[in-house]
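pls read this stuff:
=====
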Amino acid sequence: MAGKGVLKNSIWGLASQFGQQGLLIIFFVIVNRNFPKNDLGNYYVANNFYQMMVSFSALGLGQWFIRQLPDEVDQKAFLNRFLKIQIYSGIFFYIANVVITYFLYDDRMILILSALIGLNIIFDNIIYTIRNLNIAQFEQNKTFTVLTIDAAARVLLAVLIYVYPYTIIQMSVVLVLIRIFTLNLFLRISTSKSANFSSIMFSNVSWDYVKKLVFANWPFIIVGSVSVIYWRIGNVFISKYLPVFNVNIYEVSFKFFSVAELIPVIVSSTIFAVLLKAYREDGMEHFNKLYQLFFKLFLVYGFLSFTFIYSFVDPIVHVAFPKQPEAAYNTKEMFLTMLVFPTAILQANILIILKLERKDMWLNVVSLFVNVGLALTGFMFWRTLSVINFSIFISFIVFHLLQDYILVKNKVATVLEIVYGYIAAIAGFAGYVFLAKYLNNYLLFVLFWIVVLGLVVGTDKRIFEFIKDKTGRGTPAVEGNE
């Protein structure tokens, strides 16, 4: 029964992510086609700071809450205390959001939008807790239902602009109202018997309790916030060093990237349990071979994403984002990072399994500093979006190399295996880009992947064996590379 519950929870999680993302893409496309470039740029600057602040405001306590809830004798009191902490944290970071944008920008529209959009920090903190409650109680279907309604309401708002044109500030006000509506739905569906405004406000939370909680979980706060800041800091630099409409171009490119990264992020969390079980029960040799198998699959996915964007992003941008034609080339540059992103996510999970969370945290911090340092240095010489894209790409390579070093040191991978991986990546990239000059995009994409998939499957039977094992159609394998 537990296995079925976990599977059901995962399916609802996947459905929620992809369903909501699909509707939000429609909202994003309509908004980008119907507002002036400068207004959009100001909106994305304000939205960018909101997203960075919300990554801090949750205090990285989601996983702790999920683990702790089943062990609490009085779960109702525990939930109310946690919600109160999240509300106060949201208020604090909302004020920080407004103050920071006030000191960084003089534009009146950015300041107004920041004050409006930033209110979502408070509401999102409460929603964040309820979503984790649903995970802990294996009720992700509730999250799926509410978030689908939320995304559908945004799409209706976007479509309304064709009937009743409105300003970007008016849109932001309505988006806040939609978020309040979403919060009320979550409260009614998930916590109506456990928490309400009165029970939350009158719950007893001491300052010592909050301090102990935060200090005990501070590495997760760092990792969670760094991962968001890593991408969002680019928008801050763009808004300060380039004309504001460049923020729109970056946002369009990042929308493509955020869709592509969903699969490795979700799959990595799904296979985490498989890798953990192998590490604890099957020995290092089996664990290492399983890691190598997943590494190959994640590397292939990264290449698949890059080659698809390289071949087909131009017509997609032309149709969906006619006001930002420059986004096509910028997206190709940004997707260089996708060549190493999936395997970096996989290796981060490996470090956690090896109980090296602190090292993973410091790798994230080092990578962020490399990213920021390269961007600031680059803008001293070039005023172009390429500075941001290559800063992210190079910092991810540094991040990946540091991970490789730790994995070699812990005997999870060998130097030769790592070298082969980089050779395959460089050869595949160079070959595809070279052939793109001479072959039709559709023909190249199909032929390239027929050859690559043939080589991957033909040289590693573990892929088929693993699928058979996990679907109950074969005996456990993943022992060799016949």
